């Protein structure tokens, strides 16, 4: 099956920064700050959904971290008990992820692949993480359809992305890339940001049942991220099958 949803230019952009994934002060520093909020939402939502508790609450469940980059989410998910598969179209990203997992002792299966390749292989997972990925694919509807078919019945898919609003243009594009320089210039294309209602409809069209839209906001006083009712910039959607 052809990898129709991969945008080669986006892959090249992130491949060029692959060595910096695990540097908390490097080009991915914003993700390091953002990670605890994403992890909290995924962990708490999945624990409720599957009725799981304990130190490794998700033992026996499988998780796909698609567009995994250097593995910033894959490793903590493995520590929570998931059997984790991390997939990325960038060989350099996967190389960085494998090297860090080997050094940290995290048992993760990493592959250079795409949603279409996994679908052709007949893969299926209890949980799929689609975090900060959908704004970088070539064909969003086709990509979501391919991902949805990888979710097991009763499973969950989490999608985190950016809303297409004037506020997100000012904060996530202009301020983050050109004023504060949190991200390299050109990291995001505001025209690819996704309205939450549009994303919800596309998930429904893909055969999933959107359960919750969760905003995430930055607190300039505390210099940290927190869950919020505000979805004008960053937000996450969880959907079930």
What do you see in this structure?
Helix content is 37%, strand content 24%. The protein has helices at residues 8-15, 29-50, 74-79, 91-104, 115-120, 140-148, 166-179, 196-205; strands at residues 62-66, 83-88, 108-112, 125-131, 151-162, 209-219, 224-228, 234-240. The mean pLDDT is 91. It has 241 residues and is an alpha/beta fold. An eight-stranded mixed sheet has the order 3-2-1-4-5-8-6-7. The longest helix is centred in the first third of the chain and has 22 residues, at 29-50.
Could you give a quick summary of the protein structure above?
The chain has 8 helices and 8 strands; from the N terminus they run ααβαβαβαβαβααβββ.
Task: List the defining traits of the structure above.
single chain; 241 residues; alpha/beta; eight-stranded mixed β-sheet; 8 helices; 37% helix; 24% strand
Structural class designation: alpha/beta
Strand order of the largest sheet: 3-2-1-4-5-8-6-7
Q: Separation of termini?
A: 24 Å
Roughly how much helix do the residues carry, as a percent range? 25-40%
Percent of residues in β-strands: 15-25%
What is the element string, with H for helices and E for strands? HHEHEHEHEHEHHEEE
Query: What is the overall silhouette?
Result: globular
Radius of gyration: 17 Å
Largest sheet data: 8 strands, mixed
Oligomeric composition of the shown chains: single chain
Uncertain segments: none
Count of alpha/pi helices: 8
State mean pLDDT (0 to 100 scale): 91
Counting DSSP E segments of at least 2 residues, the number of strands comes to: 8
């Amino acid at each position: 099956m052809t990898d129709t949803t991969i945008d080669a230019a986006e892959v090249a952009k992130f491949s060029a920064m692959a060595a910096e994934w695990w540097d908390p002060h490097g080009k991915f520093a914003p993700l390091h700050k953002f990670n605890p909020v994403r992890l909290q939402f995924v962990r708490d939502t999945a624990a409720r959904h599957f009725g799981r508790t304990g130190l490794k609450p998700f033992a026996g469940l499988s998780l796909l971290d698609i567009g995994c980059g250097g593995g910033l989410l894959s490793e903590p998910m493995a520590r929570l008990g998931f059997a984790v598969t991390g997939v990325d179209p960038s060989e350099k990203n996967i190389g960085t992820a494998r090297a860090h997992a080997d050094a940290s002792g995290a048992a993760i299966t990493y592959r250079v692949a795409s949603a279409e390749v996994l679908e052709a292989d007949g893969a299926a997972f209890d949980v799929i993480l689609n975090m900060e990925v959908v704004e970088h694919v070539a064909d969003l509807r086709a990509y979501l359809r391919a991902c949805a078919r990888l979710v097991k019945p009763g499973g969950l898919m989490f999608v985190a992305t950016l809303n297409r609003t004037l506020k997100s243009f000012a904060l996530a594009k202009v301020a983050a890339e050109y004023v504060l320089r949190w991200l390299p210039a050109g990291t995001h294309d505001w025209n690819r940001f996704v309205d939450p209602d549009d994303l919800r409809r596309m998930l429904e069209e893909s055969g999933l049942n959107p359960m919750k839209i969760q905003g995430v906001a930055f607190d300039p006083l505390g210099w940290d991220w927190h869950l919020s009712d505000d979805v004008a910039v960053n937000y996450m959607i969880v959907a079930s099958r």
